[in-house]
Write a structure and sequence with these properties.
The protein has about 425 residues and is α+β, with helices and mostly antiparallel strands. The chain has two domains: about 15-170 and about 230-315, Bira Bifunctional Protein, Domain 2 (BirA Bifunctional Protein, domain 2), CATH 3.30.930; about 325-410, Anticodon-binding domain (Rossmann fold), CATH 3.40.50.800. It has 14 helices and 16 strands. It has helices at about 15-35, 50-55, 60-65, 85-95, 140-155, 175-185, 195-200, 215-220, 230-245, 290-295, 310-315, 335-350, 365-375, 405-410, and strands spanning about 40, 45, 70, 75-80, 105-110, 125-135, 160-165, 250-255, 265-275, 285, 300-310, 325-330, 355, 375-380, 385-390, 400. The protein has an eight-stranded mixed β-sheet. The longest helix is centred in the first third of the chain and has 20 residues, at about 15-35. It is elongated and about 95 Å long. The chain starts with 14 loop residues before the first helix and ends in a 5-residue tail after the last helix. About 35% of the residues are buried. The structure holds one RNA strand of 76 nucleotides.
Length: about 425
RNA sequence: GUGAGUGUAGCUCAAUGGUCAGAGCGCCUGGCUGUGGCCCAGGAGGCUGUGGGUUCAAUUCCCAUCACUCACCCCA
C-alpha cells in the first residue's frame, strides 16, 4: 500500500511556515489599506471560457497550463490560472462600472497552472494582485508601481530591479508588429526555429524575449516598440517616466519586456531580483485598457499587477520567530497532573499563552520540553494545594507563589 | 512538453553483488541522589520510493513508474 502524498507542484505549510506567511500577509494588507485598496474575494474556479476569452487562445496558460474539468452539471470549469480575469468578471457582474469613479481592488489567493515545477515555480502558488479600474492617467500606473515597491519594502525585500516598457495600443501596435515581422523575415536564418517558426507566425513580440543567445544578438538592432508608439502612447509613456522620477523610483527601460497575456496595453513592468535566475520575477503587471470591454463591460481603463508570494518570501530576509508561549506548566509527579491541568486552564482563560507538560511524561522530559518551547516561565506543580514554583527560565530564579496569583503575575498588562 | 541529476531511519548522509544495512543530529528512558539547555549510559525507529527483470543471491546491475532538484519553455 503506497501512501498518498501531496500532488506534484503543491506544498504544505507547517506552523513554522505559516507564522511567517501570516506576518507577511499582515504587512501586505497594511500597505494596501494605506494605499486605499479594498479586498475582493472571488471563487477559485470559474467558467473556463472566462480565461480563454481574456488571456487569448494562443497564450501558453490557456493552451496547456489550465486545470480544466467538467462538473456534474456539464459545465466547463477551470481553476483560476491568474487573478485579473476573475476580478474583471466580478467587477462587471456587480455593475461597478456603472457606479463610475475609480475602483481600487486587491486580492490574495492561490492560483493554479499545470507547469513543470522547479525553483520558484509551482502548480499551486499564491498571488497578491491589485487592479485599478476607471483611471486612464499615467499617474495611476505609477501609483500602482509605487505600491508594489512599498509592499516589497514592507517585507524587507531589496536588491531588485524595476523594468519597464510600453506595449503600445491597438492604434500603433499592429504597425510595429508588421515592422518587426518584416525584420525577422528578412533574416530568418539568424533566429532559432521557434522564433523563425510559430512566434513569427502567431506572436512576433515574443521573439524579443527569446532566451537563445543567437536570437538576442539578432534582435539587438531590431526596431523598438518605443520608437513606433503613436503620439498618445508616447505621451503616456513619457508622463509615466516623469512621475516615476517624481516619486524617486529608478527604472530600467527594457525594450524586450513583453507581457505574455494579450490584454496588456501601454505600460508593462516587472520587478526582478538582480541576482536571481530565470524564475525570479517577483511581480509583473501593466495596463489593460481593453480588457473590461473584451469581457462584456463598458470601455474601462485598468492597470494592476500580480505578485508571487512564494518568490517574494523566498527573497525576503528570514526574521527570528517571536516566542509565542509565556509559560510552561509541569507536574512534578503523576498525582499532580490534575492540579497542573486545572492551573493551565485558568492561565489560558486569563489570557496567558501556556503549554502543559504531557501527562505521564517524566519531570525531566517535561523540563526538556519547556526549555525548547521558548516559554519564559516554568510553573512547577506538586500534588496537594497551596503554592507552586514559579521559575524564570532565563534567570533560573525560582520562587513560591500561591496558585491563585500565578495568572496575575504572568498575564499581560491590560491597556 | 524537453534535458540532466537524485531517491537508504523523523532530519543530514555512509556502505557492500552475499551472514543481523551504519553514523551524526533528533526522539524516548535513566544517571549527574527529586528542576531544562552541557556531559554519560541504554533504547526505540529502515520490507534501502514503487513495480518488474538479470542472478544461486540485489540496497548495490538493467528497465519502467512516481516523486524531488536543477535547467529549457513559460510565467508570479
Amino acid at each position: 500500500m503506497s501512501r498518498i502524498e501531496a500532488v506534484r507542484g503543491t506544498q504544505d505549510l507547517l506552523p513554522e511556515d505559516t507564522a511567517r506567511w501570516q506576518e507577511a500577509e499582515r504587512r501586505i494588507r497594511d500597505v494596501l489599506t494605506r494605499y486605499g485598496f479594498g479586498e475582493i474575494r472571488t471563487p477559485v474556479f470559474e467558467h473556463a471560457e472566462l480565461f480563454r476569452r481574456s488571456l487569448g487562445l494562443g497564450s501558453d496558460v490557456v493552451a496547456k497550463e489550465m486545470y480544466e474539468f467538467t462538473d456534474k452539471g456539464d459545465r466547463q470549469l477551470a481553476l483560476r490560472p491568474e487573478g485579473t480575469a476573475s476580478v474583471v468578471r466580478a467587477f462587471i457582474e456587480h455593475s461597478l462600472p456603472q457606479k463610475g469613479g475609480r475602483h481600487k481592488l486587491y486580492y490574495v489567493c492561490p492560483v493554479f497552472r499545470y507547469d513543470r515545477p522547479q525553483k520558484g515555480r509551482f502548480r499551486e502558488h499564491h498571488q497578491v494582485g491589485v487592479e485599478v479600474f476607471g483611471n486612464p492617467a499615467p499617474s495611476q500606473d505609477v501609483e500602482v508601481m509605487d505600491l508594489g515597491d512599498a509592499i516589497l519594502g514592507a517585507l524587507g525585500v531589496s536588491g531588485f530591479e524595476r523594468r519597464i516598457n510600453s506595449n503600445g495600443d491597438p492604434a500603433c501596435r499592429p504597425a510595429y508588429e508588421a515592422a518587426l515581422r518584416a525584420f525577422v523575415e528578412g533574416r530568418k536564418d539568424r533566429f532559432c526555429k521557434d522564433c523563425a517558426g510559430y512566434r513569427l507566425e502567431h506572436n512576433v513580440l515574443r521573439v524579443l524575449d527569446c532566451k537563445v543567445e543567437a536570437c538576442r544578438a539578432a534582435t539587438a538592432d531590431a526596431p523598438k516598440l518605443v520608437d513606433h508608439l503613436c503620439d498618445a502612447c508616447r505621451a503616456h509613456h513619457e508622463t509615466v517616466l516623469a512621475h516615476l522620477r517624481t516619486l524617486g523610483l529608478d527604472v530600467v527601460p527594457d525594450p524586450r519586456l513583453v507581457r505574455g497575456l494579450d490584454y496588456y496595453t501601454r505600460t508593462c513592468f516587472e520587478y526582478v531580483p538582480k541576482d536571481a535566475g530565470q524564475q525570479g520575477t517577483l511581480l509583473g503587471g501593466g495596463r489593460y485598457d481593453g480588457l473590461v470591454e473584451l469581457l462584456g463591460g463598458p470601455p474601462t481603463p485598468g492597470v494592476g499587477f500580480g505578485m508571487g508570494l512564494e518568490r517574494v518570501l523566498d527573497a525576503a530576509p528570514r526574521e527570528p520567530a517571536a516566542p509565542s508561549l509565556a509559560a510552561f506548566v509541569l507536574s512534578t509527579s503523576v498525582d499532580a497532573y490534575p492540579r497542573a491541568f486545572r492551573l493551565a486552564q485558568a492561565l489560558r482563560r486569563a489570557g496567558v499563552a501556556c503549554e502543559l507538560g504531557q501527562e505521564g511524561k517524566s519531570l525531566n522530559s517535561q523540563l526538556r520540553a519547556s526549555g525548547s518551547s521558548g516559554a519564559g516561565w516554568a510553573v512547577f506543580v506538586a500534588p496537594g494545594t497551596g503554592s507552586v514554583g514559579l521559575k524564570n527560565l532565563a534567570t533560573h530564579v525560582q520562587e513560591d507563589v500561591a496558585e491563585g496569583e500565578v495568572a496575575g503575575r504572568l498575564a499581560p498588562a491590560k491597556p
